[in-house]
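ok, trying the design again with the full structure, not the truncated one.
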């Protein structure tokens, strides 16, 4: 959020640079944020320190719905839910979608879902508690993250800890979490057709990408467990 603000508000950039250059140490939660900070404040050399995640809360479940997709996040333009709705409408697979979260774009997104004819396949959960998230991750065939310039993407980490495959736009800190065809699948940002075909491909695979989920959990534990990230 700070980086996006600095990009958009001219007076914020010198203040941002001043704070960073006069700090004893600067840390970022992803390599993308590190690169952004270095570009905005030349001479600053941040240290990447991944954010730890509650690995005791997020764990694999016993059953999945092979046709159910999941989005978790704020309903804002930056999160890109409209891209997901368009992709859902053009998929060959009649997948269903859980949308968890709230935000200023909720009503507009509901209207878009109706216009695209996919509203009957979507369940709008609104905001839920953290303890309610694991069952949603565990049931989903895939978590979709169609956002751009995420600082890190904790949703992706939480999903992988539940061995849930992640399909995301190739942007921002998500690259630190999702390694294409290793811990998930990356799609060109904003490419709705590619997002739809990637989701169709994942749901058509034997095991529906379960090997991605298993590899993703091992990676998430190694990089984001409190004892590892610390």
């Amino acid at each position: 959020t700070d980086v996006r603000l600095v990009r958009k508000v001219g007076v914020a950039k010198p203040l941002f640079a001043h704070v960073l250059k006069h700090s004893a140490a600067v840390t970022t939660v992803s390599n993308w944020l590190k690169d952004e900070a270095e570009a905005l404040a030349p001479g600053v050399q941040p240290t990447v320190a991944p954010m730890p995640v509650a690995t005791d809360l997020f764990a694999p479940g016993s059953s999945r719905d092979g046709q159910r997709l999941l989005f978790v996040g704020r309903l804002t333009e930056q999160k890109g839910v409209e891209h997901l709705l368009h992709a859902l409408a053009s998929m060959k697979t009649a997948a269903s979608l859980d949308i968890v979260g709230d935000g200023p774009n909720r009503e507009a997104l509901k209207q878009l879902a109706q216009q695209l004819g996919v509203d009957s396949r979507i369940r709008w959960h609104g905001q839920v508690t953290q303890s309610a998230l694991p069952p949603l991750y565990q049931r989903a065939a895939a978590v979709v993250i169609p956002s751009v310039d995420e600082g890190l993407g904790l949703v992706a980490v939480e999903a992988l800890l539940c061995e849930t495959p992640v399909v995301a736009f190739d942007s921002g800190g998500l690259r630190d979490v999702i390694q294409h065809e290793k811990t998930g699948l990356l799609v060109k940002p904003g490419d709705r057709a590619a997002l739809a075909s990637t989701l169709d491909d994942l749901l058509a695979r034997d095991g529906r990408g379960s090997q991605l989920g298993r590899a993703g959990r091992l990676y998430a534990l190694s990089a984001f467990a409190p004892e590892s990230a610390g």
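Keeping the full-length input from now on. The mean pLDDT is 92.
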